[in-house]
Automatic annotation (TrEMBL):
SUPFAM superfamilies: NTF2-like. It holds the Pfam family SnoaL_2. It comes from the Bacteria. Residues 15-109 form the SnoaL-like domain. This is SnoaL-like domain-containing protein. It comes from Paraburkholderia ginsengiterrae.
Length: 121
């Protein structure tokens, strides 16, 4: 289970929130998230694949040249895990940072909690 939690954390960061291609992002959401997933962010509570796809696509469009970089290793714990990350232009210091915490059910993300350490500029 630890390997799957690590995979979900890293792939979510890159393939959902870091993905600019709508079709690839949508396929990743379907593969990585339960149908009834819930994502909690400072800005909103997002429920289901369609809402997550819309939210992550709109967020990506605000900073299309930014990349998400893991800061340290993912930490799995039973059916949960966390990953600290930074986001900013490739090769530069992070413009903002945060931590993702996931709850996993049946090998997929059931809930994602996104905490921001610093606000995006």
């Amino acid at each position: 289970m630890n390997d799957r939690i690590n995979e979900l954390l890293y792939r979510n960061l890159q393939e959902v929130f870091g993905e600019g291609d709508a079709q690839r992002r949508r396929a990743a959401i379907k593969e990585l998230y339960t149908d009834d997933c819930v994502v909690y962010t400072p800005a909103a509570k997002i429920v289901g694949h369609d809402a997550l796809d819309k939210f992550s696509g709109e967020l990506r469009a605000t900073h299309p040249h930014f990349v998400y970089t893991p800061l340290g290793d993912a930490q799995p714990l039973h059916n949960a895990g966390r990953l600290n990350w930074g986001s900013g232009p490739r090769g530069e210091a992070a413009d903002y940072t945060g931590v993702d915490i996931i709850i996993v059910r049946d090998g997929k993300i059931e809930a994602l909690y996104v905490f921001l350490d610093t606000e995006p500029s």
